[in-house]
Amino acid sequence: MKNRILAATLACAATAAVSAQTLQINGAGATFPAPIYTKWFSEYNKLHGNVQINYQPIGSGGGIRQITSQTVFFGASDGPMTNDQLTAAPGRILHFPTVLGAVVPVYNIPNMKAELKFSGPVLADIYMGKITRWNDPAIAKLNAGVALPASDITVVHRADGSGTTYIWVDYLSKTSDEFKKRVGVNTSVNWPAGVGGRGNEGVAALVTQTPGSLGYVELIYALQNKIAFGSVQNMAGEQVRASVESVTVAAAAAATLMPADFRVSITNAPGKGVYPISSFTWLLLYENPKDKTQSKAMVDLVKWALTDGQKYCADLGYAPLPAAVVKLEMDALAKVKTS
Amino acid sequence: MNKSRDWGFRLGTGAFALVLVLIVCAIGIVLVRDSWLSIEKFGFTFWRTEIWDPVSGEFGALPFIWGTLYSSILALAIATPVALGIAIFISELCPAMLRQPLVFLTELLAAVPSIVYGLWGIFVMVPAVRWLETSLPDPVRQLPFFSGPPLGLGMLSAALILAIMVIPFTSSVSREVLKAVPLAQREAAYALGATRFEAIRAALHYGRTGIVGAIMLGFGRALGETMAVTMVIGNNPKISLSLFAPQYTMAAVIANEFTEAADALYLGALIEIGLVLFVITLIVNSLSRLLIWSMAPRAGATFEPPAASAEAAA
Questions:
Q1: B3 belongs to a structural domain
Q2: Residue B153 is nearest to which of A61, A64, A206, comparing CB atoms?
């Protein structure tokens, strides 16, 4: 009996010792990459049992707030931090692109078999309420030979603040000066037209229910739910349909122009075969964090995610990083202080 | 010994009551503190500005205040007659066999999470409302209440879903109030030769403060409801009288934009919306208290003739 108690105590002590060695790292931020991050963190934990990552998908804005106040070790955001936000932080924050996403225009026109073609200026005019009917000459010009109905366009946008909106309006602002002046770029904006749905699912529900509607959702969401989406004209003048490949092409095109801090928008990227409404999503790390043990573990994890971890992208619908970008990031990761 | 125990008991429960006061004060203080940036910048113009532009940093709460009050009042107008009808039927007219199942069903409605109402709203109710809107004859569509494209999504859907959510609360409390009306009241009414309708009217009059309380409870719930409303109201911060127009409420904009607001002024403005909602809820609750006090039966009041009680019951 005594022995058994002793054994039990020892066992308890042993587990306590093991858990003391377990390194728990907290992070928070964007919801868009949450599925791949969760996958990475659990796969990494299988390889390195002592590293446990606790990631809370509370939104990009929340992630930026939390890392600025140092309540989490790392943040994640769908839009790069602004200069003001960076100066507000107590230390230097570095951006690391992890995967890519894209936003696609979805529409509902009854009995429409053909896949519609869009362009930045046309989408901008629709979202500003300047083009109000499907058979507008501007839309007809892009879709020669398609019988467009004379019905009103019901414009649907995201009601909640979101990285998806950020990418969408970033693209529209780049292709239309008027949109840039009237609306601008943010995770939520003052929409001149339309109704707001909450989340990708809210927008998708409104579009599928409302004949004559046009909205935008993440590519992953459209693929997983088999929602038809249109192609968009890129800078080279080609009509490109969003896919994992055409999004990675956009990133590769941008890699040559990559700034040292990785804060780059790749919407409307130049080059052939580029899907123009694509974007990176970033992981945010302090260059010189207080806790060097956590820092070491985190840098190792990011290195793994950028190389071996990229193979999980395709299954989850994310576009993997182009090799050139990974190489640049490896150099940048070396700058993060781990001792 | 007993006295000191009594005293201790009073002190203990008093401390708990104090906690309530402290919590309300703490909420107020935190809301003011965290929205200070926005209060300082916009002052009272915040209450009457119609622009909400996170890009240029211009914020005003008016469309949200309008949307919140408009949707809640509409919901109340729809829900109150139905809820009172349910309460009267269950407590006065219902066959005993049906009573328990009906009570159970109203309580079940109250227990459904608001996200479920929202999903049901967007997939079932909104298409039905859209059909209703498109089938209205053109002359009706010319009225300011029914102008604009029939999207299904908008003020009408929000008011309907709020009404459905409010009904179980108002009807349960009203039912309890009617149950508490002394039998002597009814017997007296019958003894005077009152019909069943008149007797019920007398009972309603007797319990009128409780019933107003029940209605105000529903109003409070409608003011603060978030998820279900944001899913069906269309989330467009524009003031409109039209029931078809997509609009916005205070609770909805906080829920939608808080997670992504990284800019300090933007965050402050969102928290100030919370403060505005807090203040408006306070005003509404105080007004309902005043209303109840003014209606409370004065000492020595006697049974009033049905002619006077008709107004209170209506």
A1: no
A2: A206
